[in-house]
Amino acid sequence: MHLEITSEIFQVGGSGYTAPEDAAIYLICFNEKSALVDAGCGNRLDRLYGNISECNINPETIEYLLITHCHYDHTGGAANVCKDLSCKTVAHKLDAQYLEKGNNTVTAADWYGSSIKPFTVDQKISNKQTDILLGDRKITAIHTPGHSPGSLVFLTESDGKKVLFGQDVHGPLAPGLKSNRKDYIASLEKMISLDADILCEGHFGIYTGKNKIRKFIKSFL
Ligand SMILES: [Zn+2]
Ligand SMILES: [Zn+2]
User: Fold this and answer.
1) How far is the CA of 34 from the centre of ligand 1 (A)?
2) Of the candidates 38, 9, 57, the residue with the CA atom closest to the CA atom of residue 168
3) Backbone angles phi, psi at 208, to 5 degrees
4) What is the DSSP string of 147-169?
5) Positions of E strands within 47-160
């Protein structure tokens, strides 16, 4: 099962797509090049690969796994996805450390009664903003700390629309997750300023239209 968001962007994982415990997983296909945004908990990778194939993409051709943040519902499957697909992982350096060391508190794996399988993050983002090239198209990673120290959003353009992969826009904030309220508020303001046409959230689905997106993000301010 998959959902077409634009002619090049699909939802291929999440509750109702792969497993109820999974955060949303998105697939970006620019010409012959593809990337995944997040990996879910990893309990139903068979379904994930099946959903990617439905989009006429061979999962083994995926170049990047773009990680929005270190939490288990987004990264529990990352180690196996990288191994199965030999793709390059991208995450912010402030969250990468918890994935590489397998920290079950900060990644919230404890909340899921599980443990994070450590993996190497190939590209650690340390700037406020970094462009990632997928073929000749651009995906911009923007540091939006608060929910976690190294939260990223990814911004790209498809079918003439600005698409924002915001994932856990809604939070929550918790000391064990090393959340920071001041940073979170600033990041929400930053996301509003990006003026996206489509917002792909981690748990709340897809929002279309600048006003609807602004209203949704503002509801957490
Ligand atoms: Zn989440
Ligand atoms: Zn989260």
Assistant:
1) 22
2) 38
3) -120, 135
4) SSTT-EEEEEEETTEEEEEEEST
5) 62-66, 88-92, 123-125, 129-134, 137-143, 152-158
Q: Residue 75 C-alpha to ligand 2 middle, in angstroms? A: 10
**What confidence tens digit (pLDDT) does each residue in 43-93 have?**
999 999 999 999 999 999 999 999 999 999 999 999 999 999 999 999 999
How many A from CA of 131 to the centre of ligand 1?
Answer: 24
Condensed to tens digits (0 to 9), the pLDDT of residues 199-216 reads 999 999 999 999 999 999
The pocket of ion ligand 2, defined by CB under 5 A, consists of 71, 168
User: What pLDDT does 128 receive?
Assistant: 97
Domains belonging to the chain, first-starting first, are 3-218 (3.60.15.10)
Between the alpha carbon of residue 182 and those of residues 143, 147, 163, 187, the distances in Å are 14, 10, 25, 9
Output the pTM of the full model: 0.97
CB atoms within 5 A of ion ligand 1 belong to: 23, 73, 168, 202
Give distance in angstroms: CA of 75 to centre of ligand 1: 9
C-alpha 18 to ligand 2 mean position (Å): 18
Q: Which residue has the tokens 């068979």?
A: 46
**Ligand 1 centroid to residue 202 C-alpha, Å:** 6
